[in-house]
Amino acid sequence: MSNAIRSDGTVVMATDRCKGCELCIPACPPQVLSMSSEKNSRGYYYPVLAEGCTGCTACHLVCPDYVFEVYRIASSESRVKVAS
């Protein structure tokens, strides 16, 4: 058995900044982002996150509206911000 620390990720989204461009959807390698069926305060659909985020930062890198803060979560449950 390996002693490697397992790491998963999560994102925190500023959904009211989103303009619904959907660039993050195809950029997500684990395909855990989809567009909501609800609109934000500006009238745009925004992304929602399902389980399986790896914290790769692809969504953050393609987002023109700076919606995503990306975290990696080590097995000890500590969160480390990797992009915002």
What does this structure look like?
The protein is mainly β and 84 residues long. It has one domain (7-76): Alpha-Beta Plaits (2-Layer Sandwich). The protein has helices at residues 24-27, 58-62; strands spanning 7-13, 33-39, 45-49, 68-74, 79-83. Strands 1-4-5 form a three-stranded antiparallel beta sheet, with no helix packed on it. β2 (33-39) and β3 form a beta hairpin. The protein is globular and about 40 Å long. The protein starts with 6 loop residues before the first strand and ends with a strand. The relative contact order is 0.31. The model is unreliable at 1-5 (pLDDT under 50).
How do you describe this structure in short?
This protein has 84 residues and is mostly beta strands. It has a single domain (7-76), classed as Alpha-Beta Plaits (2-Layer Sandwich). The chain is 11% helix and 37% strand.
* Main pleated-sheet profile: 3 strands, antiparallel
Number of helices, counting only DSSP H or I runs of 4 residues or more: 2
**CATH topological fold name:** Alpha-Beta Plaits
How are the strands ordered across the major sheet?
Answer: 1-4-5
The unreliable regions are 1-5
DSSP strand count: 5
Average pLDDT value? 88
State the shape: globular
Helix content: 10-25%
CATH architecture: 2-Layer Sandwich
What gyration radius follows from the Cα positions, in whole Å? Answer: 14 Å
Structural class label:
mainly beta
- C-alpha termini separation: 34 Å
- In the residues, how many domains can be counted? 1
SSE arrangement, N to C: EHEEHEE
The CATH class turns out to be Alpha Beta
Oligomer, anyone? single chain
- How much strand? 35-45%
